């Protein structure tokens, strides 16, 4: 149970929480989805229900009653461990397939900093209703239940450190894509996951049909580090569109600056603090996710604390990519105009994307549509979304002046911002979010062989 008493925290901490069981407990309670049979399903489910506070064997009951929903195609989920190149490099993958239906499109979902795929438990069932779509949710390498190899940055230059840290995540995602033989997919990322999705698009643009960025961080320039003239111009440019309800930013506390300077992860403090860390975590968690029903709050609390307790790994990338707070060292607003329209050597569609012996003909990629989704009370910088929208909707035409008419037409209207009213940063807990995402993916055309060209 979520407790703020030290004695109860001590006994709870001593008992320990299994990340695998905590994850299984949440996924098994999602209604209307079946788990694909595996060798050890039964043992995990039995253990899960023994420690579950959901009551009445709810995790098992859902599997019994959810064989088929008349208005939707039967759906089945799998939990897989995808081995990557390198020692102890494994991605944790959750996927939902629609039975007896051809897969036409893929949606890949990415969690925020320090989180895991189970944070989308309220979205999996709703988003898997889309005909022709297969869903994947990944734990970032070094987070969630993915493996935790040692994280080390060798670069000395700050910009090179940012690039090396970004490549840690996006190269793993690209290797996963190749292993899964996915040619094209829509990418949905929340918070830090949104940042990584854009970074992926900058390096591997030829495989994306759309970027759906939910409360992404790292977009904007730090207003304290740009000139007065640029700051005024920024305000004027965004005045007509930016929301006036965004949560005001507080000064960065000294302790946070110290943590950044010595490159200590926030989760390190939780691990070092033992039962006191659990108590402080529980206080924070209950305040942060108070909108959830008690049973769901408890299950997500147990899952989150269990993955926070795992060995530190890519969580240490935070201080390389970001300044103290949520502003990126290399803001994406500086780089995003290059996304999707890069010149790249095209891959022969008859060959595997693992091979590089493709034709030397060069093509511009099709523009990647961007959708920014924020909560009205989001602490993520909404102005960054509006600034990017302006850049993406105007820069393409300037960049393609002098090119053929067909090329210019491909580059129109590539960005938009959607604000969900009365919602904070964790927008995926709300039904409006599912409706918006379904609306955004329903108009994505089925990829063709021609689309696979960069």
Automatic annotation (TrEMBL):
Residues 106-224 form the AB hydrolase-1 domain. It comes from the Eukaryota. Belongs to the peptidase S33 family. ABHD4/ABHD5 subfamily. This is Alpha/beta-hydrolase. GO terms for biological process: cardiolipin acyl-chain remodeling; lipid homeostasis; phosphatidic acid biosynthetic process. It comes from Zopfia rhizophila CBS 207.26. GO terms for cellular component: mitochondrial inner membrane. Pfam families: Abhydrolase_1. Keywords: Hydrolase. GO terms for molecular function: lysophosphatidic acid acyltransferase activity; phospholipase A2 activity.
């Amino acid at each position: 149970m979520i407790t703020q008493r030290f004695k109860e925290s001590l006994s709870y901490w001593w008992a320990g929480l299994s990340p695998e069981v905590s994850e299984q407990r949440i996924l098994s309670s999602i209604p209307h989805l079946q788990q694909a049979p595996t060798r050890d399903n039964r043992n995990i489910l039995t253990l899960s229900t023994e420690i579950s506070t959901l009551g009445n064997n709810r995790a098992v009951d859902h599997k019994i009653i959810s064989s088929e929903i008349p208005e939707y195609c039967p759906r089945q989920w799998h939990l897989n461990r995808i081995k990557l190149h390198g020692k102890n490099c494994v991605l944790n993958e959750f996927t939902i397939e629609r039975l007896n239906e051809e897969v036409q499109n893929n949606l890949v979902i990415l969690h925020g900093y320090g989180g895991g795929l189970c944070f989308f438990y309220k979205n999996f069932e709703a988003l898997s209703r889309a005909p022709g779509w297969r869903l994947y949710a990944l734990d970032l390498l070094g987070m969630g239940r993915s493996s935790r190899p040692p994280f080390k940055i060798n670069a000395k230059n700050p910009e090179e450190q940012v690039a090396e840290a970004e490549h840690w995540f996006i190269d793993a995602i690209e290797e996963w894509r190749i292993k899964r033989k996915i040619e094209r997919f829509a990418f949905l990322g929340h918070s830090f996951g949104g940042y990584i999705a854009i970074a992926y698009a900058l390096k591997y643009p030829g495989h994306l049909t759309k970027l759906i960025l939910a409360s992404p961080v790292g977009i904007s320039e730090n207003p304290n580090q740009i000139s007065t003239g640029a700051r005024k111009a920024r305000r004027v440019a965004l005045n007509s569109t930016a929301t006036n309800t965004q949560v005001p930013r507080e000064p960065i506390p000294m302790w946070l600056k110290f943590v950044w300077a010595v490159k200590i992860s926030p989760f390190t403090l939780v691990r070092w603090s033992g039962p006191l860390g659990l108590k402080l975590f529980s206080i924070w968690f209950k305040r942060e996710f108070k909108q959830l029903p008690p049973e769901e709050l408890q299950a997500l609390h147990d899952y989150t604390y269990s993955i926070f307790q795992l060995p530190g790994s890519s969580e240490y990338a935070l201080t390389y990519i970001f300044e103290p707070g949520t502003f990126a060292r290399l803001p994406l607003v500086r780089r995003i105009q290059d996304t999707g329209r890069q010149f790249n050597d095209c891959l022969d569609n008859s060959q595997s994307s693992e091979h590089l012996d493709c034709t030397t003909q060069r093509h511009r990629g099709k523009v990647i549509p961007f959708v920014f989704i924020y909560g009205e009370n989001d602490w993520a910088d909404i102005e960054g979304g509006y600034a990017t929208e302006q850049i993406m909707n105007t820069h393409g035409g300037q960049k393609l002046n002098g090119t053929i008419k067909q090329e210019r037409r491909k580059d129109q209207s590539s960005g938009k911002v959607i604000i969900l009213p009365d919602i904070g940063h964790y927008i995926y807990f709300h039904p409006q979010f599912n409706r918006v995402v379904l609306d955004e993916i329903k108009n994505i055309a089925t990829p063709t062989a021609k689309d696979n060209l960069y």
